[in-house]
Amino acid sequence: MKTKDAPVTKAYDVERIRAQFPILRELVHGKPLVYFDNAATSQKPRRVIKTESAYYATINANVHRGVHTLSTRATEAQEAAREIVRRHINAQHAHEVIFTSGTTASINLAATSLGQLLLRKGDEVVISGMEHHSNIVPWQLACERYGAKLKVIPITDSGEWETGPQGRKDAKGSTEQFFNERTRILAISHVSNTLGTINPVKKLIAQAKKQGIITVVDGAQAIAHLDVDVQDLDCDLYAFSGHKAYAPTGTGVLYGREELLERMPPWQGGGEMIETVTLEKSTWAKLPFKFEAGTPHIAGIIGLGEALRWMEDYDFAFAKDSAEQGKSAFAAHEHMLLERATKELLTIDGLRIIGTAKEKVGVISFVIEDVHHYDIGTLLDQQGIAVRTGHHCTQPLMDRFGVSGTTRASFACFNTCAEVDALVAGVKKTLKMLR
Ligand code: PLP
Q1: pTM for the model
Q2: Residues 191, 350 contacting (CB under 8 angstroms)
Q3: Which residues are paired to 363 by β-bridges?
């Protein structure tokens, strides 16, 4: 897939990519759509849309339940998608891939089940100050239930973890330790949805592991932009959503190391997740079904498999042909857009970028003096440009930077330089109208 000796033959062909996204032909307020809200949800290529609708047109049946042909086909298609996910994130076994409705469900599963397994009064869970609410609230609930404490890694002015990576200097110059003998769980995001920061998760996981701490990674913003390898990261659990990676909404994954998943109790009861049920007691199905109660989003899961295959086909096809062999071509393209947007936006008077880490994906959050982000978002929309405004489900991070919200543009493989220029021109026009 990512060969080292491929010839350099072809540049990144963004128009070829764009042609596969039907929605990009839509007009918004009579203007061509410029879609810069990919961190909230990405658009879907035709192959994914077709795969999902073909399931309903030709296969639709419940999985793992019937002996009839359609049920067998549905089961085979779903389990093929599980294998695609396994390969894409380099998990050791397909049964380490649990299908959920998204990152939020995956982390709730993790927090509920790990809480029951690990947390006792006085124990500690470590998160960071840049987490999405989905990676804060489930841990707060678990801590509250078991009398544990939530500890938070602070964030620097540039939007990075303030760790060394094991601690920071306090006023007296001694290092504050985030991990101690009561730390049971580390739950951190791979990439920040608000700042774009790519966190050095591998390094922190290695430190945590030395102390026997279970590690959970929120990969919601990483899966579409980084080459995620769960064995290389050596994390215990890894969560992501399909819809941020060109797949249908309502799909997600919790990867878990087999040995840990075997020990974790189920989090939801119902059909599919049991081996036997009597009125007195039930026993659990084997992995991954122990964690998959009820009928899953079968069409979406099959679409998720297709989305990952689509990414592999196009991303690595370009990567193979590009000067930067072995690197994700999508990521390189998005990084080029990020650099262009950063440079041009910074020429605007009073504009400040929140999140200036050295390692970033294509996410740019900014505030403008005396202008409300909501007004910027609304006036950009009038020009056909879709950006996100508000706190981006990271209220503690907004508090850290002393702002109520930001305007966020987030790039995907199909965005262009011309669109970035339209954004910059759009912001300038908006300011003229407002000032
Ligand atoms: N974690 C991060 C970093 C996110 O960016 C998001 C969504 O924006 C989530 C978790 C929650 O994802 P979902 O709404 O797909 O469950």
Answers
A1: 0.94
A2: no
A3: 410
Residue 297 near residue 251, CB atoms below 8 Å:
yes
Which of the listed residues 42, 103, 188, 391 should we mutate to test ligand 1's pocket, taking the one with most ligand atoms within 8 A of CB? 103
pLDDT tens, 8-54? 336 789 999 999 999 999 999 999 999 999 999 999 999 999 999 99
Q: Which fold has domain 50-308?
A: Aspartate Aminotransferase; domain 2 (3.40.640)
Q: What pLDDT does 116 receive?
A: 98
Q: Where are the beta strands (DSSP E) in 257-294?
A: 274-277, 282-284
Region for 351 from its dihedrals, namely left if φ exceeds 0, alpha if ψ lies in -120 to 50, beta otherwise: beta
Domain range list for the chain: 3-44+327-434, 50-308
Q: How far apart are CA 152 and CA 222, in angstroms?
A: 21
State residue 175's pLDDT score: 44
Give every residue of the chain whose pLDDT is below 70, as ranges: 1-10, 164-176, 316-327
What is the predicted pLDDT for the residue at 231? 98
Active-site residue, from 143, 393, 413, 417: 393
Residue 12: per-residue pLDDT: 87
Tokens read off for 74? 């549905």
Q: Would you call 413 a catalytic residue per the annotation?
A: no
Give yes or no for a cis peptide into 7 (omega within 30° of 0).
no
Atom 14 of ligand 1: nearest residue by CA position: 104
Residue 253's closest CA among 288, 290, 204? 288
Of the options 3.90.1150.10, 3.60.20.30, 1.10.3720.10, 3.40.50.360, the CATH number for the domain spanning 3-44+327-434 = 3.90.1150.10
User: Distances from the Cα of 336 to the Cαs of 199, 231, 263, 345, 417, in angstroms?
Assistant: 20, 29, 44, 14, 9
